[in-house]
Amino acid sequence: MTQPLIVAVDDDPDLLAAVERELRNRYSPDYQICCLPSMDEGRATLQQQSAAGGDVALVLAAEELAGAPGTEFLGEVARYFPHAQRALLLGWGLLGAPAVGDAIFEAIARGRIDHYIVRPSVPPDEQFHQAMSTFLLAWAETRGRAPHTIDVVSETWSGRGYELREVLGRCAMPHRFCLAQSEEGQAILADVGERRFPILVMPTGHVMEDPTDADIARFSGAPIEPSGESYDLVIVGCGPAGLSAAVYGASEGLRTAVVDAGSIGGQATSSSSIRNYLGFPRGVTGADLARRAYQQAWVFGARFAFMQQAVDLSQEDGGLVLRLHTGGMVTARAVVLATGASYRRLGVESLEALHGAGVFYGAAASEAPLVSGEEVFIVGGANSAGQAAIHLAGYAERVTLVVRAAALGAGMSHYLVRQVEETPNIEVRTGTEVVDGGGNGRLDHLVLRDRRSGEEERVDAYALFLMIGAQPHTDWLPPTVERDDAGFVVTGSDLGDGALHALGRRPMALETSVPGVLAAGDVRHGSVKRVASAVGEGSVAIQFVHRLLAV
C-alpha cells in the first residue's frame, strides 16, 4: 500500500518552508509530504493522486492564496478525497480576531474545512504537532486505520455479527466489519484459519470465536464480578453523567463502583462529532470523550462492572442494595442513577425485522464506512441526527434527513442547522415520517409519508439510521422511586407530597424520592438533553453525596 499524502499549499515561500520543515522531520516515515506554492499545483496533485488510486490524509492551506481565501481551495478537496482532513493555516497573531473567527465558523458550516491549525513556530513546536496528530487520527479512524482496531468477520450483516458491532460500539472500541466472503474477509481468514463465526480479531492477534458480551467486557478490562461488595457510592449507568460522577466521586476519596448493562459512553457514543463541548474546539466524538473519561475514573480508583444489568434497588439495614441480572449484588451508602435514555423504536414491523441489516438505531459512526456511495436516510431532528447526517455525508452518495417537525431548527442547534443546510449531499425533508419499508434480507426501500398531505412515496434506501425520541431506562426501578408519565425520574422540587413525607425534609436538587438515591443526566425529569449538561449534573451529584454521607 502506497503511503498517503500530506499536502500543504502556501504561496509565501518562507512560510511554506517552515511548514515543510516540520512535516518532513516528523511525518516522512509514514506519509508522503507534498508542499506546493500555488492552488493550481495543489489541484493538479489532488487530481493525479485520485486518478492513481492513492489517498490523501490531510491538506493544509494558507489563509490566503493568490488573493483568495484558502478555504475556497480546501473546499475543493472533498471532490477528490472526501475523507481527507482539511485545515486552514493561521498565523498566531490572527487568533481571537472576530472577522477571522467568523470566517472559520462559516467555512466549517459550509463543509469547506474541518478546522484550523496555528502555523509552526521555532522547533520543536509540539503544539503544532499535537494538532497535526489530532487531524491524522481523525483521518485514520475514517479509513479503518485507527490504532488498536478490532476486525469483526461474520457470514451475515445481521444476527450475532451485528450484535457484536453494537457491543464494540458501546465499549467505544475502534472496529471494522467485513463479510467472510468479501476480499477483506478472505484475507483475514487466510491468516487465522477456519473459525466459528462470527469472529473478532483483536489488535494483539488473539482471535475470539463467537464471544459472549461478558467475554468482550472481560477482554476490555472489566475486572469485577459483583458479589456483595460494599461501596460508598454505586453509580448505575456509564454514560457522560455516570462517568462524570465516577471521576469526581473516586477523585474525592469515595469508594466508587459503576455498573452498566452495556459499557462506556451510553447514547453519546453514537455522536460522531460534538462540536460545542467546552474545551474541544475541533469537536470530539462521543466514543473518544467516553474513553478519556473512563481512563480518568479508572486511574482515580473507580471500579467498573460492564454487561451487568441492574434489576432491583432496595433499602436494607440502613443501606442501599443493588441486585443484578447475573445474581450478583452490591451495597452502597449512596446511589446515583445515570442510566440515561435510548432511541425509541420506530414500531414499523417490516423495518424492525431488518434491524442490523440496513436498519440501525444510532450507530452512524461505526456503520458509516459500510454505506460508501449509497443512499441513506436518517430519522430524527435533534443534534445527534444532525451530527450523524454530517458524518455520513462524507461516505454516502446522498443523505436524507427525515424530520417530523415543520422546521429543522425546532430541535437542533443553530450551528448544526447551518452545517446541515450547507452540505451539498444532504437533503432535509421536514413534516415527513417513515411508515414502511423492506427488502429481501436487507433494506432496499422505504415508504415516506408527508404529514400535511398524507401522500406516500416509495424511495430506494440502502440504510436507515433511527435517532428519535428518548426512552428512559427506568423500568427496573421500584415504585418508591417517583417517575413522571414518560418514565423519567423526578428529583428535587418537582417531587410530590408523598416523596417529601418519605424524606422527612426538603430534598436536594438531584435527590429522588428514596433517601440516598440521586439521579443525573438524561434519565432525570426536566434535564437538558446535552452531553455537557449530563457531565455537569454528574459532578454536582457528588457534592450532594458528600452531604448525604455526612448526616
From TrEMBL:
InterPro entries: FAD/NAD-bd_sf, FAD/NAD-binding_dom, Ferredoxin-NADP_redctase_2. This is Thioredoxin reductase (NADPH). Signal peptide: none annotated. It comes from the Bacteria. It comes from Blastococcus haudaquaticus. Residues 231-538 form the FAD/NAD(P)-binding domain. It catalyses: [thioredoxin]-dithiol + NADP(+) = [thioredoxin]-disulfide + NADPH + H(+). Keywords: Flavoprotein, Oxidoreductase. GO terms for molecular function: thioredoxin-disulfide reductase (NADPH) activity.
